[in-house]
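User: Please fill in residues for this 232-position structure.
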């Protein structure tokens, strides 16, 4: 069984990646076209593989450098504070009116290409969308640092990594699960959800980024106090 603090941090970081209105909208839009479940599965497979590969790369690369073994102290505090600053900056930027227009234009262009894509390009698109977000790199580094500093066994690392990857995909699974439960009769609701996510979800991303930034900042400050307290 996973330690509670491992589980809570893994779930929080995984949700930070999974809560992506644009990617949820892409999955919902794929359900409105031809071969909905097959094409949706291709996109999600790319998403899962990219998240798993990114976390694995952080652990493999980090384990070969001496600084990796100190991620639980000064290095981890620095990562928390940098990540908090990046997320809070992203959240504030996301809440500005100008960004809504730019993201909407980019999203509409991307979604306009979806009907022409087959399963292999969709596999690559899913992987690319997982890796294109800068704040996701913070989450991968944070989760990888936790695995490096709390390493117990390969099986334990794989177990935590599997939970992390599953959580990163959880919210993107909601549209296909709703589609399956409804027997494919959710075309109109999914179309409306897609329009809402594309045009009016920027503030949700901003608020969520701010909350995660506060969470990482709190962890960084707590770690800083622990270091200074231990030094004293």
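Assistant: Residues filled in for all 232 positions:
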């Amino acid at each position: 069984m996973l330690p509670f603090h491992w589980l809570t941090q893994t779930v929080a970081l995984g949700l930070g990646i999974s809560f992506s209105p644009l990617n949820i909208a892409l999955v919902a839009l794929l359900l409105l076209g031809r071969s909905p479940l097959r094409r949706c599965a291709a996109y999600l497979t790319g998403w899962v593989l990219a998240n798993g590969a990114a976390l694995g790369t952080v652990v493999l690369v980090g384990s070969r450098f001496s600084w990796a073994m100190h991620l639980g102290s000064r290095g981890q505090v620095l990562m928390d504070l940098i990540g908090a600053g990046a997320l809070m900056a992203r959240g504030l930027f996301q809440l500005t009116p100008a960004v809504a227009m730019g993201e909407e234009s980019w999203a509409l262009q991307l979604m306009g290409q979806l009907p022409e894509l087959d399963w292999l390009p969709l596999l690559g698109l899913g992987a690319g969308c997982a890796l294109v977000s800068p704040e996701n790199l913070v989450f991968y580094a944070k989760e990888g640092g936790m695995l490096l500093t709390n390493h117990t066994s390969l099986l334990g690392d794989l177990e935590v990594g599997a939970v992390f990857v599953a959580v990163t995909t959880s919210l993107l699974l909601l549209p296909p699960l709703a589609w399956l439960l409804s027997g494919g009769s959710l075309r109109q609701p999914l179309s409306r959800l897609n329009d809402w996510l594309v045009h009016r979800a920027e503030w949700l991303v901003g608020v969520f980024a701010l909350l995660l930034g506060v969470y990482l900042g709190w962890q960084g400050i707590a770690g800083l106090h622990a270091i200074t307290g231990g030094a004293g």
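For context: The chain has eleven helices and no strands.
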